[in-house]
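Lab meeting minutes (informal)
Scribe: AK
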Amino acid sequence: MHGGPALGPVFERARYPDAHHVHWWHQPLAKPCAARPYLDLLEAALAEFRRVAAEAGGPLTVMASSFGAHLAVHLARQAPELVKDVVLLAPTFNPEDAALRLARRAFRVHTDHPHAGKLATALAMYEDDPGRPRFWDVFGALSLLPDVTELYFGPSAGPDAARSFAELIQQPGAFDGPTSVATSDDFSALDHTPVQSAFTGPVAVLFGAYDPMIDAEKDRAVWEAIFPQAAFFKVETGHFPLLELTLAECLTPA
């Protein structure tokens, strides 16, 4: 269950071309004028999960990255009998907070850039009047800064990781902006108070030591409320452990 929302699994498929045992699910696009695109996404994820589990003939490992963690929580809540175990990779419980943390980090890195002032103004206006319109102003200003994708990765990933990510995200189907906006806004309108999951099997949560989007200490308490049995691990990556570690390291962290 990849992140975004509205990111396609092109990054994972490029990183693991031989992982034929993994089902890299491509999230559907939001329907035009959909009333509740996030709820539609949850329904689509559950339907696909039930289909793949039926084909496999038994419970499955659910691996989710970033925003995809919310889809994993939904699957574990609605169909716990079909879940073998759950692996959450840099799960973002509050995507708006995560994006704002990234924007502040980008501003510190690019203070001298000609467009840095626009980002500073957008952030200040958000602080004075929080809400989705101001949030999207911040997001727009953030997009004016260069090399933002480099911030997603840890220092050991090397420049090729960020360059590959930037190239892949330009491919058709890699990311859909309108779907991302619609799904994000619908998500933000709901109550996301943590509720303990019905799933009681193994859960592993991996936080990247260099993740610019997540406050691991703060978010750990949230994910513990949902999965009290969870084991937590800090890995030497940024926001995409699956793109910096091996698949085996993500599934069985030390």
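Next up, CB showed the second protein from the same session:
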Amino acid sequence: MSSLTRSGPRREVRAAAARPGVGVPGCAHPLLAPAEWAALTRPHTPLDWAVLDVARGPGALPDPRCLEAAGRLRNGGVRVLGLLDLGHGTRPFGEIVRDARRFTEWYRTDGFYLRRCPGRYAALDGVRRLADALLALRQDAHLVLEHGLHPDAGFAEIPGCQLVTFAGPWAEYRWSQAPEWTAEYPPERFCHLVHCLPRGHLEQALRTARWLGAGTVYFTDRTDRGDGGGPWEALPGYWDEFVSRIGTRVSE
């Protein structure tokens, strides 16, 4: 593995030219979180994408409330990604493709969010094969691979995929580093998801994302409750301030 870096001349030039967008990794079902989904459709909200999680996947039958919520986002120009849980590489290939087909047919999703995507070199060929199958369902599909940490550099060579190279608490993110190989790719190839972030550290977190070269971010003050719901199902208490900072942020 190559050495780690916090900044450096090449990273500074690359990151300074970019303004991050927001990726929402999955609100609760629209029936349980109607205010959250309504907030995502407000005009001028700088969303790169939002994840649709019907029932830890597409569910067994089409859900009209999810179809309506996804349609509103797509009509507003936001990419909606269907949640596919890879189980760190343990789920059968056929099951994943079946779920992807349901998302495409039932909800007209614009791509897929691959949760718990393995990042070791041994899994690279399998993930590449899966990416090819998903792109066969929809040629222009946007694919986000949620590794949660920096994977083997080979994953960045899968065409068109965005890599979630951090998913965790602020206490870890504030000291995080990035391998040198990430400087070879533009910021839009990387996403960072940070929970347990106090409001007062929003600007510091944005600067950290900037120096580490992340083109898509999601920050929240919610905590990982450990009950399976995770910190992403509700928008952060400072959602309006967060998206305002992103929307008005300019290159320095």
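CB comment: The two ends are 32 Å apart (CA to CA).
No objections, moving on.
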